[in-house]
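Appendix C: a fully annotated inverse folding record. The material below is reproduced so that readers can follow the format used throughout the book. The structure is listed first as tokens, followed by the designed sequence.
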């Protein structure tokens, strides 16, 4: 009995050792196999996907006909925008411009543009940082520091222009901006906000409370939380005066009672345009109105909207104000001062029950439309994307989650069925495709406010860009017409030509009530900071006849689709060239 027990114990010990050995060998073999597979995947990924395999070949597309987007395999995309451009050639002519084909093709392009958009925004960040590093060492402020003052965002003492730059704000930048607009004081708060005005704040604060470092200038303080670092700008006025623009608005019939229509006035025997503009700028009014030797300052109002100008001959002597038509007509000038009646904005206090999109093809003026909507309604707009450059310029809704419902509407360029049906309603902004394509190409190579170079236009990128993006312009409209629940169609050209009537439609669609004076304020600030800088090429025609033929067919397709949904067709200027 003892021998049998001993043999069993010996066998179990050997078995235990054997099991341990087999388990260790199994784990080692599995680890080696896993490492080998990982290495193989990395090697294959580094080679990339051949261009001819990224998307369906033209022969396959023409053979299959109409393609269901859900049956398309997601392509493996490279880091460039136009991966597989050769594979995106058009199918047969009879199928090429049908709404079904455009919608199918849009699903392929959606992945391309999303990938490019994120690459573009990520590329912009180091570029902006590099520009800032080059700038911050040369910027020196010359104003006189007046001290630290209390700042109430609701009851501001510096009631003039307001600027934001959440990345590159410096003391010099704020001072120069205020001086060019004829303000006497510049105040900085929160390290990134700039306020201008002509009255020094009354409530002083402790110096140590202005402790927020300027976002674009290490070691310098730009106010604090509810605190302003205030500078006097008298030393900058001499240089800034040369750069100020006093814009002639025209000759208009004077209101019946000028003293009631305008809050400030001046009577000067030898009155000049410069004297009147300087006086009104110090009083912080955007309009300088001259009648003979009388100078009046104020805003555009219902009684004096500047919509119906008179013949210039009725106002004689635009250079010599004293000889202007004495009684019935007056000369009107735009001072450098910003109209601030519509500049205050905020997030919605309660979540919006209606989820509204502001949808457009890129380059169709979406950012400009957001500027108009925000100033008209007083509420921020959101964005499906995050554009750091726009956020840094005051579009605070960029950083808010697009589904928060704290914004009045949400910018989007998406046009898939799922992305469209998420929204309860939408403002669909449409622009001439020729203009849209050029605007988006400019933005791609020079940002929101720049122009692409001759080298960009003459490169292979431009025809490839047109070939891919022209169909997206059409499919974007077609898919919103198909899947959108409640639409307001706004043509960019109509908005530009008839700003207040079209803006009224948009505001009513958003279920917001605004005053006539606020809309006039928006009109007075209509351009914002969205005009492209630099030399614009005159009589520049980047489109070849082949490109025009392609775009014109898309125009006819979209026009027919709009009329089929009982909307007005495209404006006449869209008609094929």
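Designed amino acids, in order:
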């Amino acid at each position: 009995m003892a021998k049998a027990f001993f043999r069993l114990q010996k066998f179990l010990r050997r078995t235990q050792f054997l099991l341990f050995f087999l388990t260790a060998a199994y784990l080692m073999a599995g680890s080696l196999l896993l490492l080998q597979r990982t290495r193989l995947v990395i090697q294959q990924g580094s080679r990339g996907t051949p261009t001819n395999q990224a998307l369906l070949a033209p022969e396959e597309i023409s053979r299959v006909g109409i393609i269901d987007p859900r049956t398309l395999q997601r392509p493996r995309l490279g880091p460039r925008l136009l991966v597989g451009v050769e594979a995106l050639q058009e199918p047969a002519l009879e199928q090429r411009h049908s709404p079904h084909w455009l919608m199918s093709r849009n699903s392929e392009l959606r992945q391309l543009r999303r990938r490019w958009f994120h690459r573009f925004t990520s590329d912009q960040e180091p570029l902006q940082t590099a520009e800032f590093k080059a700038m911050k060492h040369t910027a020196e402020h010359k104003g006189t520091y007046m001290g630290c003052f209390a700042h109430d965002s609701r009851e501001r003492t510096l009631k003039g222009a307001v600027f934001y730059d959440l990345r590159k704000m410096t003391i010099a930048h704020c001072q120069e901006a205020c001086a060019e607009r004829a303000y006497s004081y510049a105040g900085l708060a929160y390290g990134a906000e700039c306020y201008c005005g002509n009255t020094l704040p009354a409530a002083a604060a402790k110096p140590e409370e202005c402790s927020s470092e300027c976002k674009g200038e290490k070691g310098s303080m730009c106010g604090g939380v509810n605190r302003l670092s205030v500078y006097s700008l008298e030393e900058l006025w001499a240089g800034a005066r040369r750069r100020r623009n006093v814009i002639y608005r025209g000759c208009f019939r004077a209101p019946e009672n000028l003293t009631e229509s305008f809050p400030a006035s001046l009577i000067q025997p030898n009155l000049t345009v410069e004297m009147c503009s300087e006086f009104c700028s110090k009083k912080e009014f955007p309009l300088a109105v001259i009648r003979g030797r009388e100078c009046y300052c104020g805003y555009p109002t219902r009684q004096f909207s500047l919509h119906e100008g008179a013949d210039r001959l009725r106002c004689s002597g635009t250079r010599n104000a004293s000889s202007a038509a004495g009684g019935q007509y007056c000369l009107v000038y735009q001072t450098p001062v910003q109209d601030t009646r519509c500049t205050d904005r905020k997030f919605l206090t309660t979540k919006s029950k209606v989820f509204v999109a502001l949808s457009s093809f890129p380059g169709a003026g979406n950012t400009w439309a957001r500027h108009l909507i925000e100033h008209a309604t007083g509420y921020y707009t959101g964005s499906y994307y995050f554009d750091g450059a726009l956020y840094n310029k005051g579009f605070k809704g960029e950083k808010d989650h697009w589904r928060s419902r704290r914004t009045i509407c949400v910018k989007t360029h998406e046009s898939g069925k799922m992305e469209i049906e998420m929204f309860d309603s939408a403002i669909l902004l449409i622009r001439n495709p020729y203009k849209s394509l050029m605007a988006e190409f400019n933005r791609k190579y020079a940002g929101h406010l720049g122009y692409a170079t001759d080298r960009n236009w003459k490169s292979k990128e431009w025809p490839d860009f047109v070939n891919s993006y022209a169909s997206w312009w059409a499919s974007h409209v077609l898919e919103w017409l198909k899947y959108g629940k409640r639409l307001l169609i706004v043509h960019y050209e109509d908005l530009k030509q008839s700003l207040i009537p079209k803006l009224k439609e948009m505001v009513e669609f958003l279920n917001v009530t605004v005053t006539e004076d606020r809309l006039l304020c928006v009109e007075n600030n209509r351009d914002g900071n969205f005009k492209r800088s630099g030399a614009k090429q005159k009589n520049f025609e980047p489109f070849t006849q082949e490109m025009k033929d392609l775009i014109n067919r898309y125009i006819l397709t979209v026009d027919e689709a709009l009329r089929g949904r009982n909307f007005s067709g495209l404006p006449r200027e869209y008609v094929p060239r």
